[in-house]
Design brief:
The chain has no helices and eleven strands. By secondary structure, it is mainly β. It has one domain. The two termini are 33 Å apart.
């Protein structure tokens, strides 16, 4: 079975042009043909964005396999116009949420270092799925159980 790539428990916010890019910059090299870029999992992420600056939710390049991507339990929120929050994705998302979210006020530039408890009371708390292969944070903090929070891992004080 081919290895799956995973993007989980991330916070993407701001005035991005797109949320994700599926690219295959080098389809062949030195006589070898590479498999199309695919088999990605995008789970439990929080996307807070400006609908006015978004070109498309997922930028898909040539020589890729976007239909092999899986999307689950992500939160999509256009903070400037909640009615434009729902993304157009290359495959159907399971249990995604759009139109509401946390503004992450008080979260510094690295939400994994100082979350300030911002997600303890938002709609993202408990809205995700357990991902057994994510057992800690990017900074190396181990968790006793996989998180069910959408977005950055909740502080231990949230008791989830």
């Amino acid at each position: 079975m081919e290895q799956q790539r995973l993007a989980a428990h991330n916070l993407a916010r701001g005035q991005q042009r797109w949320h994700l890019r599926i690219l295959q910059e080098t389809p062949t090299q030195a006589g070898y043909t590479f498999e199309p870029s695919g088999n990605g999992r995008v789970f439990n992420n929080s996307f807070v964005f400006s609908a006015a600056s978004l070109a498309t939710a997922v930028n898909v390049g040539g020589n890729t396999a976007p239909s092999t991507f899986m999307f689950s339990n992500n939160n999509w929120w256009a903070s400037d116009n909640a009615s434009l929050s729902a993304p157009t994705l290359p495959t159907t998302e399971t249990d995604g949420v759009s139109g509401t979210g946390t503004d992450y006020a008080g979260v510094d530039d690295d939400p994994h270092v100082n979350s300030g408890g911002a997600i303890c009371g938002g709609p993202e708390l408990g809205g995700g799925i357990r991902i057994p292969d994510v057992d800690g944070t990017i900074t190396g903090i181990c968790r006793s159980a996989p998180q069910t929070t959408i977005g950055p891992a909740a502080p231990e004080s949230c008791n989830i």
